[in-house]
Specification:
globular, 9-stranded mixed β-sheet, 383 residues, Dihydrodipicolinate Reductase, domain 2, 28% helix, 2 domains, 11 helices, binds nicotinamide-adenine-dinucleotide
């Protein structure tokens, strides 16, 4: 049975805590404004009585999505659940006739991604992937400025950032900091989860979002924290008929800063601060041009698509190139542990603690500047 678009679409949410709380806020606001009807939610913690603040009392609570779908036929299912649950839950929602707003990354592997695409096609339903930076007008602005020749010929794209994550970030859930959990790929690496937007937005700026647009991926992963996955990683990506892309990120910075995507050209560079929707265009001899751009919420965009057919801003197919990079990272070498003597521990309130790798900011900057990985630059943190 497939859902028929109604005047006020019904929406269900799976995953109401963690990042799901932002969905609780967005759904509640739209529910109260009469723009959608939030009918049901699924989360084992919700079913156990852990209700997020502000959640409307008339939303039916279920322990899991299967139970929810046995009782409801939502027009849209939003999924803010752990990464390794995405493929199965999205498939179940599509098969129940719902369109899906799926948190990033869409899936934790290319095979699952292709299967999900096939299921969406078979069901005639849509999947919008929750890379909120792709709801911004900024990537299209950067592409237009490049096409207008503002920075000459593009010589390369780079993206990444320096963030901090405390120990509690890696201990908050059984899947956090893992490459695998049982027989599932988790893919909770720095560039596949926390800084995934840098990767996806860079691919959008380069206008290479399809799975076939990635021709090579070289992965150089490291880990500062005592986790299974990587938290400090450089990746070089070859793109079809395009200058290359380099990525570098860390969660062990001493100084956290704004992540960015940069397009460098023979005549200047354009930097996109994608969490802020701010673009800075720099051409030698001219004053920098700074522009701020609007952003469309991807839930509103999906509802608009259902109403008018307007193309989605972050359709599943647009995550193909990202997923190929993710697939290379999860299938690539295990991260190299950084020697603890190089690491500084910072005590935080409440008994929490953060690890910092002094000099990692300069190393990330060097990768983004030179398009060479940490290891190629001669950086060796293992001793
Ligand atoms: N777009 C962003 O900026 C952004 C930021 C943070 C996290 N995320 C994404 O949000 C998703 C969730 O991440 P998180 O860090 O909040 O995870 P989390 O583990 O902290 O919270 C996940 C929530 O989902 C619930 N849950 C787990 N399995 C479930 C299932 N099978 N069915 C229903 N509910 C289930 C948990 O009980 C919990 O309430 C991930 O895909 C992550 O990448 C996106």
């Amino acid at each position: 049975m497939s859902a028929v678009p109604t005047a006020v679409p019904t929406v269900a949410l799976a995953g109401v805590h963690g990042f799901g709380r932002t969905y609780v806020e967005r759904l509640t606001a739209r529910h109260r404004a009469g723009r959608l009807r939030w009918t049901a939610a699924a989360d084992p913690r919700l079913a156990a009585g852990e209700v997020p603040p502000g959640m409307p009392g008339d939303v039916a609570a279920h322990r899991d999505l299967a139970d929810l779908l046995a009782h409801h036929r939502p027009d849209v299912v939003a999924l803010a659940t752990p990464l390794h649950t995405h493929a199965d839950l999205a498939a179940a929602a599509l098969r129940a006739g719902s369109d899906v707003l799926l948190e990033k990354p869409a899936t934790t592997g290319l095979e699952e991604f292709t299967t999900l695409q096939r299921i969406a096609e078979e069901c005639g339903r849509q999947v919008q992937v929750g890379f909120q930076s792709l709801g911004s007008d900024a990537p299209a602005h950067v592409r237009a400025r490049i096409a207008a020749g503002r920075i000459g010929s593009v010589t390369g794209y780079a993206a990444g950032g320096c963030w901090q994550r405390p120990r509690s970030y890696f201990t908050r859930a059984d899947w956090a900091g893992r490459r695998r959990l049982g027989d599932r790929v988790v893919a909770d690496g720095v560039l596949t989860n926390p800084l995934a937007h840098a990767v996806a937005t860079a691919l959008a700026v380069a206008d290479r979002r399809g799975a076939d647009d990635v021709v090579s991926v070289l992965v150089d992963p490291h880990r500062v924290n005592d986790i299974e996955t990587d938290d400090t990683t450089a990746v070089r990506v070859g793109l079809r008929d395009s200058p290359g892309l380099v990525l570098a990120g860390t969660l062990a910075a001493s100084e956290a800063g704004e992540p960015f995507v940069v397009a460098r050209g023979t005549g200047g560079r354009i930097t996109l601060y994608y969490t802020l929707d701010v673009v800075v265009e720099e051409v030698p001899g001219r004053p920098p041009l700074v522009s701020r751009h609007d952003r469309t919420d991807l839930l509103d965009d999906l509802l608009e698509h259902r109403a008018s057919g307007r193309p989605l801003l972050s359709p599943l197919a647009g995550s193909g190139a990202f997923t190929r990079v993710l697939d290379a990272i999860v299938g690539g070498p295990a991260p190299r542990p950084v020697d603890p003597v190089r690491v500084r521990a910072v005590d935080l309130p409440g008994g929490d603690r953060r690890l910092e790798l002094p000099g990692v900011e300069e190393a990330v900057a060097a990768v983004l500047e030179t398009h060479r990985t940490f290891t190629e630059l001669g950086v060796d943190w293992t001793r």
